[in-house]
Amino acid sequence: MTVQTLASDDIHTTASFAIRHSGVSDYRASFNDVHATLVTGDAPQLSGAVDVASLQVKNENLYGHLMSPEFFDAENHPQITFTSTGIQRGADGAVALEGDLTLRGVTQPVRATGTWSEVEADITGAPRIGIDLEAAIDRTAFGMAWNAPLAGGETVLGDDVALLVHVEFAAPAAA
């Protein structure tokens, strides 16, 4: 298999998360500045980075709190990074990744599952790969311990966070 290094098509690449809020719903937010690199071949490798300050939320006060040391600590840790340590692809398009996620300067192993799709030629004539992934992390393992109690024993935030990443990689168009 030919080895290529592909960059993400950032217009078609997203990273988001969901966390239980007040015990009644899942709060969702996303990042605008997401970049990834995929090395293809028999032993593919994926790495990516998210600019923490690109977080999109609907409230300025909430944004400030999330950028603070109680959550992302963006001033000291401006990026979230992921580096794969193993990628297993199934014949049916299923994919499983093992890798290291670094958030707030803390690196933890994470496993993500999803789908891997390829086309030989997109609208520009270039090969394109799409990878959709889901993973779950415990935010407290990364030092995000802020919480507040609610009446009835619930807390404002759950500890489990669902991560969703959708990335498209495009090879340079043939000359």
From TrEMBL:
Residues 5-170 form the Lipid/polyisoprenoid-binding YceI-like domain. InterPro entries: Lipid/polyisoprenoid-bd_YceI (IPR007372), TTHA0802/YceI-like_sf (IPR036761). This is Unannotated protein. It comes from freshwater metagenome. The lineage of its organism: unclassified sequences, metagenomes, ecological metagenomes.
